[in-house]
Design goal:
mainly alpha; Cytochrome Bc1 Complex, Chain D, domain 2; elongated
Length: 258
């Protein structure tokens, strides 16, 4: 059978009509854009990312200059910095001292035994200082407190007083070796004078210092100061313990050794 012999006339008419109305854009193909146009597009995309990268870096980077604020909202306003002068006040200082009699919130510190270690009374118009004996009620002397005191003692006290409290710390030994003319040897914590002082006296010495020894009140908080006092008492007890503090079975052994 030849081509077209089996096709009806109506089918031929429909085929011709479909060919007549076929979309001329059907076979159209877009040409590949030129290289320069692709390069410009990629560069524009990369450049658009730069503000985001700069902003992200600025958020984690410190600078000596104030940040740029489009909306100020009182975030950056004229103000005095520390140690600046000011014509507003009579003394010319921008830094204002605390008003006499004011107490910071939570810092009333009215318990003399816990916060100072001594009490002051007026006798004959003169202040009379009395150091407290024993530890305040806020302090519980146990193994944990003594261990904390040992750690703080090793950091702040041992450089001069030595790890055993005998006064032969590395600073004291070095100053003695160099024969420093103004060096005052560190006191032994096992001397009768120090051992006879009340606990409040030792606490006050740690806080405010004594003679050439500086105070550590600004560096050691109150609980740690009492921890150091407890460890000093433990050191003293280790070198000069009374017989009543030694267990009976060990006391008998010590007597036999002597």
């Amino acid at each position: 059978m030849k081509r077209g012999e089996g096709i009806l006339p109506s089918q031929q008419i429909m085929s011709q009509e479909s060919n007549q109305f076929e979309n001329p854009l059907r076979e159209l193909r877009l040409r590949r854009p030129p290289f320069w146009l692709v390069a410009i597009f990629l560069i524009a995309v990369v450049v658009s990312w730069l503000p985001l990268v700069v902003a992200a870096r600025r958020r984690v980077q410190t600078s000596a200059y104030p940040r740029i604020q489009i909306m100020q909202d009182m975030g950056n306003q004229p103000r005095y910095k520390e140690q600046q002068t000011s014509p507003i006040f009579a003394d010319g200082r921008a830094d204002r001292p605390p008003i006499p009699g004011t107490v910071a919130r939570g810092q009333l510190n009215e318990d003399d035994h816990y916060y100072r270690g001594f009490s002051t009374t007026m006798v004959g118009g003169k202040p009379q200082v009395t150091f407290f004996k024993g530890f305040p009620k806020e302090v519980t002397v146990d193994d944990r407190l003594i261990a904390r005191g040992q750690q703080r003692f090793a950091i702040f006290c041992s450089p001069c007083h030595g790890m055993d409290g005998s006064g032969h710390g590395m600073v004291n030994e070095r100053a003695t070796e160099l024969q420093e003319p103004k060096w005052v040897p560190a006191a032994s914590l096992h001397s009768d004078i120090v051992m006879g002082r009340p606990d409040g006296h030792i606490f006050n010495t740690i806080t405010n210092g004594i003679r050439n020894m500086p105070g550590y009140g600004s560096q050691i908080p109150v609980p740690d100061r009492w921890a150091i006092v407890s460890y000093i008492r433990a050191l003293q007890l280790s070198q000069d313990a009374p017989s009543s503090a030694v267990p009976a079975e060990k006391l008998q052994t010590l007597k036999q050794q002597q």
